[in-house]
Specification:
Largest sheet: 5 strands, parallel
Strand content: 5-15%
CATH class: Alpha Beta
Number of helices: 7
Helix content: 40-55%
CATH architecture: 3-Layer(aba) Sandwich
Shape: globular
Length: about 180
């Protein structure tokens, strides 16, 4: 059974907070590639930033996500990903038209169920690593919500509830499969 679980969805929808809750419960988690890249680029004065060179940023995110996915195969239990390869590939394909998504998704599969955080304006904020606005976040969410089923994943939209209850919801869904 594939135990690499992808949590994707709207920026600012509570993914990172949810992953922190799952980690506190002893599950392996993988931080979002985009946030790690932005932090590294800002510290080193790099240009692979979504607001400077989105194509370079997407290529870096794809490479990092492939490495993350490969490393997770060694884990015995569930590994929860804050975004991942398919999000990065979808961004690159949207920007360039390069059909990378289907090729990469065929080789690097996640668990059959993908959990999406829906747009949640009440908790959305920007920060030094998330500079885009809510409307851009919703447009990205809409693309992802269409892409995952087209790639053969079952999509579960997470309810807008307290983080502990969201974690319980995900674990309950996975235990029933």
């Amino acid at each position: 059974m594939n135990r690499s679980v992808l949590i994707s969805g709207c920026s600012g929808g509570g993914k990172s907070t949810l992953l922190a809750e799952l980690a506190a419960r002893g599950h392996a988690v993988v931080e979002e590639p985009g946030r790690r890249i932005v932090k590294h680029e800002l510290e080193g004065g790099g240009a692979a930033l979504p607001w400077v060179d989105m194509v370079a940023f997407a290529h870096r995110a794809i490479a990092m996500a492939i490495a993350d996915h490969t490393a997770a195969q060694e884990q015995a239990g569930w590994t929860f990903f804050d975004r991942g390869l398919l999000d990065a590939a979808a961004a690159l394909q949207h920007l360039t038209g390069d059909p990378v998504l289907e090729k990469l998704s065929a080789v690097h599969r996640y668990h059959e169920t993908v959990f999406l955080t829906p747009p949640w304006p009440e908790i959305y904020t920007t920060d030094p690593e998330r500079r885009h606005g809510f409307h851009e976040a919703v447009a990205e969410y809409d693309r992802l919500a269409a892409i995952y089923p087209a790639l053969g994943y079952a999509v579960v939209i997470l309810p807008k509830i307290a983080v502990a209850h969201r974690a319980d919801f995900i674990l309950d869904c996975l235990s029933q499969q």
